[in-house]
Each structure stands twice: as C-alpha cells, then as structure tokens.
What we know:
Layout: E1 3-5, E2 12-14, E3 20-26, E4 31-39, H1 40-57, H2 60-77, H3 86-94, E5 111-114, E6 121-125, H4 127-133, H5 143-150
Antiparallel strand pairs: 1-2, 3-4, 5-6
Amino acid sequence: MSTTVCSDCNESKPKTTEFFFTAKRQLKDRLAIYFFAYCRPCAYKRKVKYEATDRASFGVGWAKDILSKARHNAKTRGHIPPNITPEELSLKRQAYAGLCECCGTPDEHPHHDHDHITGFVRGFICYLCNSKAIPTVERNLHTKAVKYLDKYVVQ
Length: 155
C-alpha cells in the first residue's frame, strides 16, 4: 500500500479514502481519481478556519475565490466569465436576503447567476434553479425562471 505525506501536518499516511479526500475527473479514455494534498483531519481544520473568517462574512477574499473558479470554468467551457469585481460581488452577496431570487425558496448556499454570453451577474439563486430552471427556460418549463430572467432583459 502506498503512502503520502499530508501537506499540512507532514504526517505520512496510507493513500486511501479513509485518510484523504478524493476527486474524480473524467478524462477522454478513463475516470481518474485524485487524492487531495491534506489528510481528512487537516482538511476539516482548514475548512472550519476558512469559514470562520472571510467566508462567513462573504468578504473580498471569498469573492476572489468564487470569481477565480468561475473564470476558470468559463475558459474551459468556452463562455464569458462573470463581469463583476470581487468588491461588487461581495457587496451583492452581503445584501442577499437568504431567498433564491428565482423561485423564492430559502437557501444558505446560493450560486451567483450570470449570463454566459455577456458576463452580466444577475443575482443569487439556489442550486436547483441554477442547474435546472435557467437552462430549461428555452422550453418554457419554468415560469418563475422566465419572470426572474425578464427582470434583467435590456430594453
């Protein structure tokens, strides 16, 4: 059994899912499994520390992380990244009332919704609206999503 060293505590541990979190990536010809650099206890400590500081306040550091991921995803998927500064996104998130702006359900972990063609950031919506409602608007399946998008149509 192979071992790996945690990047945080520098302890050598078996390279198994019992000790390290994994991520799966679909490659062209196979499914690849990657092990994270931190062991499970260290990863949990880092997460708690991060959430207790900047993430809890949704400060500029949080917004930079979110926008960095969004820009990377936009580049790999071939669409325009969100056209907003970290400061503006942080202020928009702090003003978020805790309800999905599309369907109105309570959501503590919303997704920032943006137009993939223009990059305009519309607001914060829940996972279901982000993954299902907005993409199916073309088929007129979700009237709430249509009303939400109509608020941002340029006249």
